[in-house]
């Protein structure tokens, strides 16, 4: 059965350190050590860890119900199909969507590429009159933001290049905040697509989704939300936000790798031409032509990611049972602790919102005189795992005058002690390198 979120799970108070310590027991990897030091995992913004329930869900599928879905009539195939579609219902409930609006992808990057190539296919002969709203050409504009992950930039660059449309971007200010005044000028009647991140994977900024959606609607543009850094950390209701499409990756929200979700409003998905074609997404095939199923099957050609989808549903259940409101409140506390602590250390420049301003539970920073890769290696020697580099956001780093930064990202299994140990280690970086 699909798990459905309750109002109670969304309104409970923040987690506490004692509760988090109990939660940690569900994550086997957090009990290991690194170089003789207890592991402090602060890289969930890249890939989160998996609770036992997620690991067991995938294992149990292979042990008990492994079969091709939507194909066989034997018992295993029926059970596999039921589990696969139950997983879809679970993710739909998690997102506030309909089950026909949830498409399985390999990751968010594939979901964004699926959209951009489907938009390109809308101009092909045989796409149908309903697909005309997705066609792009000279004079049309695609708008992104200067803080986008490459996955939500390059597909739109490619689409603009192939169609003759113009790609524009909403700039950020020196603090990394979107310039909404510029957005109001950039989003015009020529705008066909507005693609933007809900929360920045570098800055921790939570963008004003409804404001941006309102601008796009007034201009008649479609909206695409990158929810990779919000779906794992914030209560998310795509209908309430009003977005047309959204993507997420399972490995960032306690799920396995190789699974993601593309959400789209059903009327849009059913008008959109497919991207991948083959088995399982057709109604009738002759030697000359084929007719396609409605969403979601029309976008799920071939053998699907069955065990991964089931495991991702287990992850969504784990988060829902914990309470996404509680997760967000806890990570907000950890995010503020990170920013306040980092800002108090001499020679540290924190990127993104200042202390006291809303952010998700991550912080990226630059250490004067020390390269980010050296910072990461120093922290690793202390058993602390962080991300270093440009975080697949080179244009944003360039705007901020950097080539790389160090990022610490928390999740529901991190304690205040984790953050304090990290801050104590960072305080010793410049002295260690003689900076």
UniProtKB/TrEMBL annotation:
Reactions catalysed: (sulfur carrier)-H + L-cysteine = (sulfur carrier)-SH + L-alanine
UniProt-recorded Gene Ontology molecular function terms = cysteine desulfurase activity; selenocysteine lyase activity
Q: Where is the signal peptide?
A: none
Q: Which PROSITE patterns match?
A: AA_TRANSFER_CLASS_5
Specify the enzyme's EC class, one word: transferase
What Pfam families does this protein's entry cite?
Aminotran_5
Where do the Aminotransferase class V domain residues begin and end?
Answer: 40-422
Q: What is its EC number?
A: 2.8.1.7
Q: Which cofactor(s) are needed, names only?
A: pyridoxal 5'-phosphate
Q: Which key words tag this protein in UniProt?
A: Lyase, Pyridoxal phosphate, Transferase
Q: Which family does the entry's similarity section mention?
A: Belongs to the class-V pyridoxal-phosphate-dependent aminotransferase family. Csd subfamily.
Q: What does this protein do?
A: Catalyzes the removal of elemental sulfur and selenium atoms from L-cysteine, L-cystine, L-selenocysteine, and L-selenocystine to produce L-alanine.
Q: Which PANTHER family match?
A: CYSTEINE DESULFURASE, CYSTEINE DESULFURASE 1, CHLOROPLASTIC
Can you say what this protein is called?
Cysteine desulfurase
Q: Name the species this protein comes from.
A: Arthrobacter ginsengisoli
């Amino acid at each position: 059965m699909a798990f459905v979120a309750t109002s109670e799970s969304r309104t409970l108070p923040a987690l506490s350190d004692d509760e988090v310590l109990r939660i940690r027991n569900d994550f086997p990897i957090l009990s290991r050590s690194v170089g003789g030091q207890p592991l402090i995992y602060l890289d969930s913004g890249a890939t989160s860890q998996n609770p036992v329930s997620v690991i067991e869900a995938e294992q149990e599928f292979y042990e008990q119900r492994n079969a091709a879905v939507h194909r066989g009539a034997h018992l295993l195939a029926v059970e596999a199909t039921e589990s696969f579609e139950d997983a879809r219902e679970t993710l739909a409930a998690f997102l506030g969507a309909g089950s026909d609006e949830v498409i399985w992808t390999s990751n968010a990057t594939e979901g964004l590429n699926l959209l951009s190539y489907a938009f390109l296919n809308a101009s092909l002969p045989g796409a149908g009159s309903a697909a005309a709203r997705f066609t792009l050409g000279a004079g049309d504009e695609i708008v992104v933001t200067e803080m986008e992950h490459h996955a939500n930039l390059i597909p739109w660059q490619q689409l603009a290049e192939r169609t003759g449309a113009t790609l524009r971007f909403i700039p950020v200010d020196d603090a990394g905040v979107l310039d909404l005044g510029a957005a109001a000028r950039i989003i015009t009647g020529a705008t066909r697509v507005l693609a933007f991140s809900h929360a920045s994977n570098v800055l921790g900024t939570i963008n004003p989704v409804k404001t941006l959606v309102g601008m796009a609607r007034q201009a008649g543009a479609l909206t695409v939300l990158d929810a990779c850094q919000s779906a794992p950390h914030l209560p998310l209701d795509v209908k309430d936000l009003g977005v047309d499409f959204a993507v997420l990756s399972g490995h960032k929200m306690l799920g396995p790798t190789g699974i993601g979700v593309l959400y789209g409003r059903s009327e849009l998905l059913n008008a959109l031409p497919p991207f991948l074609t083959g088995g399982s997404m057709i109604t009738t095939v002759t030697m000359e032509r084929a007719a396609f199923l409605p969403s979601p099957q029309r976008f799920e050609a071939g053998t699907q990611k069955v065990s991964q989808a089931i495991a991702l549903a287990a992850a969504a259940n784990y988060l829902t049972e914990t309470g996404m409101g509680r997760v967000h409140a806890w990570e907000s506390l950890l995010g503020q602790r990170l920013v306040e602590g980092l800002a108090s250390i001499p020679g540290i420049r924190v990127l993104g919102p200042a202390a006291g301003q809303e952010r998700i539970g991550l912080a990226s920073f630059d250490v004067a005189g020390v390269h980010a890769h050296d910072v990461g290696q120093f922290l690793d020697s202390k058993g602390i795992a962080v991300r270093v580099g440009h975080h697949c956001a080179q244009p944003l780093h360039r705007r901020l005058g950097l080539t790389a930064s160090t990022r610490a990202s928390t999740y529901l299994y991190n304690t205040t002690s984790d953050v304090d140990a990290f801050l104590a280690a960072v305080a010793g970086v410049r002295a260690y390198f003689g900076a």
